[in-house]
Amino acid sequence: YTIWNFIPKNLFEQFRRIANFYFLIIFLVQLMIDTPTSPVTSGLPLFFVITVTAIKQGYEDWLRHKADNEVNGAPVFVVRSGSLVQTRSKNIRVGDIVRVAKDETFPADLILLSSDRAEGTCHITTASLDGETNLKTHYAVPETAVSQSVSRLEALQAVVECQQPEADLYRPLGPENLLLRGARLKNTKEIFGVAVYTGMESKMALNYKCKSQKRSAVEKSMNTFLIIYLGILLFEAILSTILKYAWQAENEWDEPFYNQKTEQERNSSKILKFISDFLAFLVLYNFIIPISLYVTVEMQKFLGSFFIGLDLDLYHEESDQRAQVNTSDLNEELGQVEYVFTDKTGTLTENEMQFRECSINGIKYQEINGKLVPEGMTDDTPDSSSREEELFLKAVSLCHTVQISYDQADGPGDPFSHANGFTTQMEYYASSPDEKALVEATKRCKVPFHGIAASKFDHKVLSWWVAYTVLCISGEKILFTKGAESAILPYTTRGEIEKTRLHVDEFALKGLRTLVVAYRLFSAEEYKEVEQRLHEARTALQQREERLAEVFSFIEKDLELLGATGVEDKLQDKVQETIEALRLAGIKVWVLTGDKHETAVSVSLSCGHFHRTMNILELVQQKSDHECAEQLRRLSRRIKEDHVIQHGLVVDGASLSLALREHEKLFMEVCKNCSAVLCCRMAPLQKAKVVRLLKTSPEKPITLAIGDGANDVSMIQEAHVGIGIMGKEGRQAVRNSDYAIARFKFLAKLLLVHGHFYYIRIATLVQYFFYKNVCFITPQFLYQFFCLFSQQTLYDSVYLTLYNICFTSLPILVYSLFEQLVHPHVLQSKPALYRDISKNSLLSFKTFLYWTILGFCHAFIFFFGSYILMGEDTTLMGNGQMFGNWTFGTLVFTVMVITVTLKLALETHFWTWINHFVTWGSIAFYFIFSLFYGGIIWPFLHTQDMYFVFVQLLSSGSAWFAIIIIVITCLFPDVIKKVFYRHMQPTSTQKSQFIEASTGISCMDSLCCYSEGRSGCSRLAGLLERLMGRCDPRAARSWTDSDPFYSNDRSVLTLSPVEATHC
């Protein structure tokens, strides 16, 4: 859209929300018919809500527009009329030859024509496309690789044949020729490429996926309550209309002597009059549905999200990264999580690989002091490398996608020119940490990799990438290949196959990541045939995949096995404690990984996902639907027979596909009865399918997915809450997540503390809003019984408008930002407290009913308490002056404002100076405003019914007495109930509050925290707490940096180790 149609489009989107549309209808009704309240009472709050939302959305869209302009208006150079011409990236057309310099982003999908490098290659990173930060090598089209000058490119006459634009990232001429928009040029001075897809036809644009709108459980509950209140509103309006006509059936009330009807009124349609009266009552009672609820919720979510980013416990010093919030709409959902789906590599582990062991020709080796030493021997053994060992090291050193970065790598030249000083000038960049670890290991073993000067191509087998490198040694060609054992071993015919297979399984049981290495010799004729067939298959426009598969099947036969490698991926800090804390909180953890079965199980055991005492069930290597169903039934029977023991389930990708095809219910039954589930050999889309399976199950549990790589994006987007880890696999997961954290251990505080706080805050906010609006409108309904249902309003229109906007809005907003039922330290020490708020318990129908009935009860007390005072005798002044209906309404309104504000004060557990300021300040503001509003004649007001009313009311001692008595009558039963339940039937949270009080943790302490020693602030806090009787001076205290759960917990007061046990 444009700046001109933003307003109509934005209004259309806003009025699609039921509440906004409802208030618009009410406003229009007030404009069209004679209603008891001014249109301003509905129009002003609606205008405020619409304006605030439009400004927020307009600002966000402006930021997006600014970001789009930066991309679309970026300067680029194109070859035109024999020279380089600068233009904007949005002006690039298909067929333009574009120059891209080092560290620039490709502005369109380009076919690489030439590079400044002698071999016609360039290096790029695709972090913005697939999240991988490694360097990838791309090759120029051989026919144009020599065209490195502008004049030669201008004279170039060529035709590019390609398909229509499509989302497939690896067409038209294969990945080595195609430079995709969004990728960045690295370690190459400049390249020239011809644009084949531009704008929205580029592959990046075609791969855009609209993020589905996520809605929290609280928002869904809110909408349900809204419908119930809409039903109450319609009931009250219909009942009032019927009673009005029942009353008017008697002539003395239908047309009293003081209010004679006109001829037009007598002859008007009774049906139209009934509809008009119904709409008038609808307008009179419409404030029972709070429009300001949406504004307050939006503000609470937006402002509350800053607490996550500012929490020092979620800050990672080594990487200098703090937690970030991408979607504030889901804050409270963090307190409702029932299932956590986590990736393994980079999420539970560091994604920092170390070469540990290898198997060569059936013998296990370990690296000791830069030498490969057979198992059981020391490094002082004479160095006598076998031919197989040398060939193995050459294979590992050459068969990879590692790139080298030199200090002065800007100019063209031979990659081997740096060989003499590689130790100081050379740095490896790899497509995966595994490959980097292996190449660095061969370098330590005196077989260093210096650069690429040979043919190379990639191949995908069974969804696993297998890298091939062809090496020419004394005239013959050797093909080295490396990959997962499931991709390599089926094609090997010679070598120590069975021994190597056993070694691979041993490595996997130790938690090592394994790869198998093999090779094949080619004669000159065979190699020439392979090269020709491969070129023809790659440049084919039809059936390219099928033709490539044929060539690869020809290549990948008769392989000779060399050996296998074992690389260790270290566990992240405090992973075991975090998983245990989540389990105690009632959250089930599923690990979804692409690793092989044995490796995944070993890591699950080491990180505490599986316990040693747990009964591990397996659903792996299932070949058919029938076999899978039988195994599932066996597992189900076994779980029922051993129901006392905890069970863990291991399932692989192939078996999962079979289970989800026809046995979904049986599979879900087995999974739900297991304490922990591990899915290995998973493809990215399978991860998302598993999340969707749990999400859509009958129980509708709240799911959370956490991962660090591009392969986790689909899972993160599918879950109710998606969390990205700022790891080493790019930023794709972080960009697509709702929240981002630097380490897995931070998940515990994010859920157990922040999630707990956000949920109790917003749950109380929603319930309280409905409560105070029931208190507000019910007296208006009751008043109609005393005014012949004449639609006379009880409150002044200014009070109607400002009740939700000014008089009662700030206390609940501050409460929803700062409330803490339990200290953060206690929540972390006792994860089981998370169970108290699970299943949306604070917004259950029972709780909702309690708040609604409480609202009606308080409203009856407000109204009839005031009526008892003024019903029979309105001469409450010493001089006998009478009070009128506006004084009665103001008395009810005054009692109501004080009571609903004090009711929130009773609900508040964590008091700060801000709470005190807004609570008592709101009541004071109401009194001051009313004195000014009613004490001055305002020239711009058409009528001023409230002139001197409030002053008169406050000058009556009886009125003051009534206010105090009514407020106490309303709140005293509530205090009794709270005391009774806290002592007779306390919840786990309330018990923790008692412990918290007895150990001396207080809100004042948490506001005065220092790393070491006791500050003046803390001493003052302790003194005040003792004076208030909320702290035991005998409780021993210590101020330390150590925490039972977090080593860098600097935001809360921590207890000594002895006291920590009591928590």
Automatic annotation (TrEMBL):
It holds the Pfam family PhoLip_ATPase_C. It catalyses: ATP + H2O + phospholipidSide 1 = ADP + phosphate + phospholipidSide 2. Residues 1-42 form the P-type ATPase N-terminal domain. GO terms for cellular component: endoplasmic reticulum; plasma membrane; recycling endosome. ATP binds at D343, K344, T345, E435, K482, R513, T593, G594, D595, R681, K687, N711, D712. Residues 76-151 form the P-type ATPase A domain. Belongs to the cation transport ATPase (P-type) (TC 3.A.3) family. Type IV subfamily. This is Phospholipid-transporting ATPase. The lineage of its organism: Eukaryota, Metazoa, Chordata, Craniata, Vertebrata.
